[in-house]
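Q: My labmate handed me this sequence with no annotations at all. I'd like to see what the chain might look like in three dimensions before we decide whether it's worth expressing. Could you predict it?
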Amino acid sequence: RHFDSILDVGANDGGFAKWIAPLVPGAALHCFEPLPAPVESLRKWAARHHKALSVHEIALSDFEGEAEILEHVDHSTSSSLLPTTPENIALFPFTARAAKRPIKVTTLDAWAARQSADLGRILLKLDVQGLEDSVLRGGTKTLLGVDACLVEVSIAHLYQGQATFVTLVNLLHAAGLGYYGNLEQIHDERGTPIFVDCAFVRSRA
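A: Here is what I predict for the chain of 205 residues:
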């Protein structure tokens, strides 16, 4: 599929961005990450390797304002606005230590409305540690231009109040995006799924 814009929501230090950039060289790449240290790392990489990449030091949710994120000091990629559960800590001990950090928050629709250029056909990637449903609720207008969505879904109870698979399926279905399959599935030692990376696509006539 052709994409005009890639929206990497929950970019951290750019793991997904670095993978997708060479696959879609003509697309505008926007990375959203509220934590300063990963943002600095991503900006340094972009300055050397992908000057067209835009880094937005902000979190996306279903409101605009400020919030406190729980930054996991030993593993920043698992940081979340939601409290970590005992199950998460048992599975991933590096999530135990957390520090509160104030961050800025906006909605996908509010951000998109401020863009000077049309985003065109969008690939949306969501990895926000349990708050994926909030991002979708704050982006109902922008979702109409999303042709494919890659979303991490926690199956195990990793965060208090986390989005469920059923909730995400219903929200994306309402936007015209159907479940297509899993790109990756992570299990515990018994083979029970912990989280999955799902693909949703817009059907074409």
